[in-house]
Amino acid sequence: MADMKADRVNDFALKIGTVNGTGSASANGLIMQSIFRMGVPVSGKNVFPSNIQGLPTWYEIRVNRSGHVARTPDFDLIVAMNPETYAQDIEELVPGGWLLYDSSWPMADTLRREEVTFLGVPLAEMCVKAFDGGRTRILMKNIAYTGALAALLDIDMEVIRGLLEETFGERKKHLLDANFEAIRLGYDYAAENFECPLPIRLEGMDATRDSILIDGNTAAALGCVYAGATVAAWYPITPSTSLVDAFTAYCRRLRVEEDTGRSTAAILQAEDELAAAGIAIGAGWAGARAFTATSGAGISLMTEFIGLAYYAEVPCVFFDVERVGPSTGMPTRTQQGDILLCAYASHGDTKHVCLYPKDPAECFEFSVQAFDLAERFQTPVFVLSDLDIGMNDWVVPRFEWDDGYRPDRGKVLDAEALAEIETFYRYLDVDGDGIPYRTIPGEDPKGAYFTRGSGHTKYGKYTEDPDEYQEVIDRIAVKIDNAADAVPPPEIRSRPDARYGLITLGACDGAVREAIERMEAEDGLRLDYMRIRGFPFAPEVARFIEAHDLNIVIEQNRDAQLKSLLTLETPASKDRLTSVLRYGGLPLSARHVIAGVKDRLGLAAETAEGVGT
Question: What backbone torsions phi and psi does residue 188 show, to the nearest 5 degrees?
Answer without folding.
Answer: -65, -40
